[in-house]
Amino acid sequence: MDSDEKEMLEMKADLNNQIAGANAQKVTCTSTLSEKTGERNTATEEQAGKTDEQEEVQKAYKKTFEMECMTQIEHLLYQKMCGMRIVRSSVSEKSTKFKPTDIMDCQVSDFVPAPCSQDCDPAREGVAKAGRTVLTREVMQANNTLGLKCPTLAYPTTCNAFLCPIDCKTSVFSSYSKCTKDCEGGTKARTRQITEEPYNGGKGCPALVDSVACNTGSCDRNCRLHEWTKPTLCSQACDGGFEEKFRKIRMPTRGRGVCETKMSRERYEKSSCNSHDCVGDEVCIAKLDVVIALDGSGSLVETGFEMLKNFTGELAMKFVGKRYKREMMQVGVVQFGQGEILTDDKGVSTVSPAKLVLGMTDDMPKVAAEIKKLKWEKGFTNMAQAFTASEALFEDRGRKDAQSVIIVITDGKPSFKYQTQKAVNDLRDAGVHVNFVTVHPAAESSEVKQMMAWASHPAESHMIHIPGMKALQKSAKMYATKSLVQFCPRALSPSTEIEEEKEQGFELVVEARDCLDWWVRVHKNCPNGRCAGLDDCAAAAREMGIKYFVFYPFKTRAYCYANKANDGKCNFEKRPWMRKKGWTNSVFSVYRLKGELGGGDAAATMLVNTETGKETDEELPEAKRPSEDSPEVLKQITEQEDSKIPFGNNDGIPEKVIVASDDEV
Question: Distance (Å, rounded) from C-alpha 344 to C-alpha 321?
Fold first, then answer.
């Protein structure tokens, strides 16, 4: 505790230093902002003055050119030139050598300026340098010997003698700031910066701040909820469990808004599941990553530890690593109870770590063998270190599509409860289900209540209480089965399966797999060409003499296919969208018939039908055959494995557990 307090004080001092530094930086930034704001205001005023000067110059130019220059031009053209022509016309009328009509003056067009050598002077300041151009005009009528000669046709002159105007340029707007109010009308703003100041009469800068209204709604708002979650895993594999659904808050209340409570009917649903009776020989076939944490502390004494070890071995042998050609359970083992205080060279004290006995594996006999080798450690109960070691196992070998579970088997007497609580919280926050098997004579003791508080919600589904070592010694197998069906969401009884298998005459071989070159339509031989379920498919397959078939219920009917070789093998070649050749992930599952097969008229279909007929609208065409590249199929597989896992197939017939070979199902 002293070390934790020292660490907290150091962290507090560090945070205070950071706050002081941030405040100093804020003062500096505020000063810089004021300075730059003043500079901007000065530039804006100067720009306004330059704009006024430009307008005055343009007015003076217009006045001088239009009122003085144009007056002189009109005087030359329409008074002096006209007067000279009138005199010449009067003289020529009295001439005996030529008439006025014999005189032909040179006529030229108006001047046309050539392109200027520059649009403007690119210099930012100073006196503008003029560009050069040539004014040209063309002869429209040549003169004779009596008329006026043509004037000069080209005049070089200056042009564009002004500095180029530079428009103001700005950056793009930033994102809008946070609204100043959460409701009842606030504002949010975005800003931009000047990247280039205007010069020489260029366009001025636009507004640098843009503000809009936001959150204009009422401050009173009811909460909004997400859609219902998927059902949780069933709390028990048999003897009646329950599953839960929730609606989580998507948007919280505001002001005087209201929201349904967490356990209200609008946000919580609880329904029964796996209501069939337990037989006693159940094994777990759920897809789980399990860490068994076994207590070996001194409070157990050696005989008590041997009882816990035997119980743990019984439980481990009820776990199944692989079934239906699919990976099911992985199990790792951690032992705690060897706790002691260790002091390093610097005088820092720590608690000894838990012992990592076995990493994640699907080899259950190996798990049982490693548990059998464990020795009584005699130390104090360092349970927190067991949780930490378990978290490391999940991070190292845990699977993304498997639920992580820890099963703590203990007498319920942990040391350092604060550290243990923190370790439990870390695991639960990571989505790990925390389960306890507590061997303690008093169910109402503080130790048992503490284990229930640490177990995942709901505690009654994640906590097994065994009333003392004598009860455990007397009924170890019974408590192992009880722990299994309570901690495992999907279990089966091999003995019950054997009996039902004899009765139904077929067995499940491979789950959620399909072979895309199995195209003999078994369902064509069902009544009216439609199979209602698995029983119909099995009956049709038996009549056709088929031993293996794949089955998939689709809406109100079932589809089932077989291969012509009838050998249970899949020879489908690898396609670009497949990971490997052969079997693919699918919503189909593979079944095998037992007993004698039929040989009636339907058997001929098996031998001669090449399945090349055109599909009807109700069939599943090859392009739509469910396979591993279909998002819809993967969604269905995920929902089956990770959410509401049925204890049997769709017809309510329990599935056979069998391990298939690699080349044959």
Answer: 41
